[in-house]
Amino acid sequence: MHIITLNPLAQCEIERSQPDLLDALLSNQLKAGRYSEFESQYTRRMITGGYPTALRMPDEKKKSKWYEDYSLSMIERDLQELSRFQRINNLPKLLNFAAANTSNLLNINSLAAPLEESRPTIGKFLTLLERLPSWHSNRYKRLIKSPKLHMMDTGLAASILRVNSNSIQNDPNLHGRLLETFVLKELQRQASLHDSRLWFSHFRDRDGLEVDIVIESDSLTVVGVEVKSAKSVNIHDFRGLRKLAVLTGENFIGGIILYDGPICRQFENYLFAVPIRSLWEPLPN
Question: 241 and which of 173, 191, 255, 276 could share a cystine (Cβ 3.0–4.6 Å)?
Fold first, then answer.
């Protein structure tokens, strides 16, 4: 039996566009370029999410109401049935925790004690969300092995946390973590249509070097993606990607930092800064 996962829509599906970032990255064909017109749009897209019903809602209040109803249905139906919590009123608390900690390292112990639930029970709940595994190597022992927790959609997360496109600007930390989840989900949705099978993970070592998203293909090639909400990038921002390149050797074919700027700029042979909008638009010339 073949199982098909129905994800929220990718931004390129919403726009009916054909972005080429993933193909260019996986084939080592990125090049410098600049968008002729630039306007930061990702925050609105991130807060809205990709659920088709919510996208059809004409205003923010109706979108928020739909997401509220959707999260309640998860709690009342799916989560209660699958998780079998000892204390049903803990389910909304856990869903809120998951939304508030999207793209953070997962620590089940920190959840189980205050909610007075067992670790297996908490773990069963978290299987309903995504755990992004850590990238591993038998040759390098200083890796952090904890997975990262990611919500299935940033629009849902924003609704649970009651933030909108304006209020999220007051919390840079949450803004950055929602953006990381937004980028991961966009890439995963595009990867589901890719010719090659792709595996996603994250990289972090005990020296504090990290790469938000690592993508490996069935031909063993490796690329890295860092996510930044900043409007500029400098050479020091590539430290994690350089470390990943050293550890993966000849399998490493490229790394990018997605950022909120208009220019696709090459820093080294295989390292680029790339505008976030390239997730839903063709790369600039």
Answer: 255
The answer to whether the beta carbons of residues 48 and 54 sit under 8 Å apart is yes
Residue 276 near residue 19 (C-beta atoms within 8 A): no
Question: Nearest to residue 13, comparing CAs of 66, 57, 49?
Answer: 49
For residue 217, what are the CA distances in angstroms to 24, 194, 220? 14, 10, 5
How many beta carbons lie within 10 A of that of residue 27, not counting itself? 12
At residue 134 the predicted structure's pLDDT band, cuts being 50, 70 and 90, is very high
Provide mean pLDDT across the span 270-278: 95
Q: What region, left, alpha or beta, does residue 229 occupy, with left being phi > 0 and alpha being psi -120 to 50 degrees?
A: alpha
Residue 100 contacts residue 168 (beta carbons within 8 Å): no
Kindly tell me if the per-residue pLDDT of 138 is higher than 80.
no
Rounded Cα distance, 127 and 131, in Å: 8
Extents of the domains making up the chain:
11-279
Predicted confidence at residue 117, as pLDDT, reads: 67
pLDDT, tens only, 21-66: 999 999 999 999 999 877 777 999 999 999 998 888 877 778 888 8
Does 4 have pLDDT greater than 60?
no
Q: Which residue has the tokens 């509220």?
A: 68
